[in-house]
Design brief:
The protein is of the alpha+beta class and about 170 residues long.
C-alpha cells in the first residue's frame, strides 16, 4: 500500500466514523477466508459493515471523531464493525462470536461512550431500532383498537338483549 492509498483509506475510515452510530472492535484469532466471508455476510444482512483495517491507519482516522476512545483497543489482529443503527453491528458481532471461537469481542464505542466487551454484549442484547419502532407502533395502535372495541361493545350488547327478548317472546307465544 503506497502513501496515497493509505491517505485514501484514512479519509474513508474517518468519513465512516463521522457517520455511524456504533463501532465494535474485534480480534481475529486465525479466521479462515470462509469464516470471514460468512461474518461479512451476516453483518451485511444486519445492516452493518465489517472491515479489517490496519491499526495505525484506524488510529489516524479516529483522531478527530467521537470514536477517539477506541484507540486503546486497536492492537493486534483487529477488525472493525460499524452501523448507523446503534445495535445492529454489536448484535451481529456477538452472535457470530458465540458460534465461532476465532472472533473475540474486544470493545467498541457508541459515539463518545467507550464500551468494553461486556458493554458491547449488553448493547447486543437490546432490541434493534426496527424492533423498537415496531413495538412503538404496536403501542400506538393498541389504544385505537381498544376504542373501537368499546364503541362496538354497547351495540353488540344491545343486539344480544334484543335477541334474548325475541327468544323469550317466541317461547311465550308457543
Amino acid at each position: 500500500m503506497d502513501r496515497s492509498q493509505k491517505a485514501d483509506s484514512v479519509a474513508e475510515l474517518s468519513k465512516v466514523f463521522n457517520e455511524v452510530g456504533v463501532v465494535v472492535v474485534t480480534r481475529n484469532l486465525g479466521m479462515s477466508v470462509g469464516q470471514s466471508t460468512d461474518l461479512r455476510t451476516k453483518m451485511r444482512d444486519a445492516g452493518a459493515t465489517y472491515k479489517v483495517a490496519k491499526n495505525r491507519l484506524a488510529k489516524l482516522a479516529i483522531n478527530d471523531t467521537a470514536y477517539a476512545g477506541i484507540g486503546e483497543y486497536l492492537t493486534g489482529p483487529t477488525g472493525l464493525a460499524w452501523s448507523t443503527d446503534p445495535v445492529a453491528a454489536a448484535k451481529a458481532a456477538v452472535d457470530f462470536a458465540k458460534t465461532n471461537d476465532k472472533l473475540e469481542i474486544v470493545g467498541g464505542s457508541m459515539g463518545s461512550q467507550v464500551l468494553d466487551a461486556d458493554g458491547i454484549k449488553a448493547l447486543a442484547s437490546m432490541p434493534s431500532l426496527d424492533e423498537l419502532r415496531a413495538k412503538l407502533i404496536g403501542l400506538v395502535n393498541a389504544p385505537a383498537t381498544k376504542v373501537v372495541q368499546l364503541v362496538n361493545a354497547p351495540a353488540s350488547k344491545l343486539a344480544r338483549v334484543f335477541g334474548a327478548y325475541a327468544a323469550t317472546g317466541e317461547a311465550d307465544a308457543a
